[in-house]
Design a protein that fits this description.
3 helices; about 160 residues; alpha/beta
Length: about 160
């Protein structure tokens, strides 16, 4: 299940409308123009436009699926509990440094005013469902463990 803020949902809807409308029409026009040039076997413009068409149609399918199955807003959770759509501040124990991020899907990154970490990332998964004051351990890409203390959890405001 994917949780999206209203801003991210609206941005994805806008992208879908653009891809289904103006972008699709422009690609179709380029394909038609390239066909008129003749020999399609060695027509680089035709093949490039067809490849772009395939990528555009694939993105349209992804967007439709995402929008049809997305939950807009944030799940019910306690004020101090880490959940999708909340801004989390953690203290990296070994470095005594703080890191603040929005726990959300990668689709949020284009509209968010703060760095976004996915709930499926090592850090995002480690803090999901935890509460302020808890210390959790997660494994870094290099195989080492990192301890972080959850310092603050607040609702995301765009």
């Amino acid at each position: 299940m994917t949780w999206l803020t209203q801003d991210a949902y609206d941005a994805l809807q806008s992208e879908l409308a653009d891809r289904e409308g103006p972008q699709r029409a422009e690609i179709t026009a380029r394909i038609s123009f390239a066909r008129e040039e003749g020999d399609l076997k060695e027509n680089g413009g035709y093949h490039a436009a067809r490849e772009e068409q395939g990528k555009n149609e694939a993105r349209i399918r992804v967007l439709k699926h995402l929008l049809e199955n997305a939950h807009v807003g944030v799940p019910d959770s306690a004020d101090d509990e880490v959940s999708h759509g909340k801004v989390v501040t953690v203290r990296i124990v070994a470095l005594d440094e703080e890191l603040t991020f929005l726990l959300g899907s990668r689709e949020e990154a284009s509209t968010a005013s703060v760095e976004v970490y996915s709930p499926t990332s090592p850090l995002g998964g480690a803090v999901l469902g935890r509460r302020v004051g808890e210390t959790v351990t997660y494994t870094l890409a290099n195989g080492k463990d990192m301890n972080v203390e959850i310092v603050a959890v607040t609702p995301y405001v765009a």
